[in-house]
Amino acid sequence: MKQTIRNAKCLVIKIGSSLLVDNSTGAIHRKWLTSVIQDIKTCWERGQQIVIVSSGSIALGRRHLQLKNRTLQLEEKQAAAAVGQIKLAHAYQEILEQHNITVAQVLLTLDDSENRKRYLNAKNTLETLLNLRAIPVINENDTVATAEIRYGDNDRLAARVAQMVSADTLVLLSDIDGLYTSNPRFNPGATLIPEVTQLTSDILAMAGDSATEFGTGGMITKLAAAKIALTSGCKMVIAPGKHLNPIARIDETRNCTWFIPETTPMSARKNWIAQHLKPTGSITVDAGAANALRHGKSLLSVGVIDIEGEFNKGDAIIIMSENKQEIARGLTNYTSHDAKKIKGHKSSAFEAILGYCGCDEIIHRNDLSLHLGEKN
């Protein structure tokens, strides 16, 4: 099956510093960025959801602070990022708003993807922005990250974001065409690999180091991103980014490397919920709610008849039938304390009971995996 950008539902597009920042001036390569935004506009107008993960804040800020031609200490990188991030955000806002597209800035750290509460907050924010047809522009929060909690590159950050929003396609724009059998800069006989379905030891051995002034990644980090993406059911493409309109060129030239997962983002997420998370509590539901779950509906509080255990928002819990048989597992939108308060009530009463307006569902259907043998 031919892989295309056109067929994607949700795209995460990673833009690296070496493409975005002009090497000679240290300024944003505006002509190139304008062409990328033109491609993104085309995708957006097709109804595709778009997330941009952009490097460049340190590269922009270091020139402005005259911190060039040497390796920066961590605090200097953070200072450069603080200056450069403003310039970066302004450039995206200016160009996207010319096309009447709303842009939002989101800064993340590795800890945001590993701390359950912050992960859920970031996920909910990004999904809300996408549903409102805004385009989030994400960068690592370099001004507060430390050496111990840094992603170190935005390839893996982009893969984590794709996992977070259940994207089906991740685009890594690169300074080379894709994955080669060996480094084409040193081996003229190296050949491009058009498609990868498994990250074998032979594929991993083909990675090399970064060879650009501004980049911190390289093929090693791109393959690490591919591992995250494939596990999440997300296709990934490494494509040449130096040309104008590089996203449109992916479908036009086929000069790239696609990484193809064995499953879909939704199936991968449901498997993760069912197989890899330890439940911290349980909810018993009535026959009507149990039947609704089997037909792909979300779990509503009106069908809840009992709650056991102590759990926090985002924890995995077991859903039981009235005869205490496991029906499903899912990620709860409420703590056990609040879930007990709204048990048996309709969502219209939540604000009066809890003092805030929460989610309509105890567990959304996208965060729910039916027990083996049930309809999923």
Tag the structure with descriptive keywords.
376 residues; alpha/beta; Carbamate kinase; Archaeosine Trna-guanine Transglycosylase, Chain: A, domain 4; 2 domains; eight-stranded mixed beta sheet; five-stranded mixed beta sheet; 14 helices
Description:
With 376 residues, the chain is an alpha/beta fold. The protein folds into 2 domains: 10-262, Carbamate kinase; 270-370, PUA domain (Archaeosine Trna-guanine Transglycosylase, Chain: A, domain 4). Helix content is 38%, strand content 18%. The strands form 2 sheets. Strands 3-4-2-1-5-7-8-6 form an 8-stranded mixed β-sheet, with helices on both faces. Strand 11 and strand 12 (326-331) form a beta hairpin.
- The gyration radius over C-alpha positions equals 23 Å
Distance between the termini: 26 Å
Mean of all residue-level pLDDT scores: 88
- Major sheet characteristics: 8 strands, mixed
CATH class of the largest domain: Alpha Beta
Query: Strand tally, please?
Result: 13
Poorly predicted sequence stretches spanning 5 or more consecutive residues? 209-216
CATH superfamily of the largest domain: Acetylglutamate kinase-like
- Assembly of the depicted chains: single chain
- What is the share of helical residues? 25-40%
> How much strand content do the residues show?
15-25%
User: Which geometry do the CA atoms define?
Assistant: globular
Topology pattern, helix = H, strand = E: EHHEHHEHHEHEEHHEHEHEHEEEHHE
CATH architecture label of the largest domain: 3-Layer(aba) Sandwich
Structural class: alpha/beta
> Strand order of the main beta sheet, please?
3-4-2-1-5-7-8-6
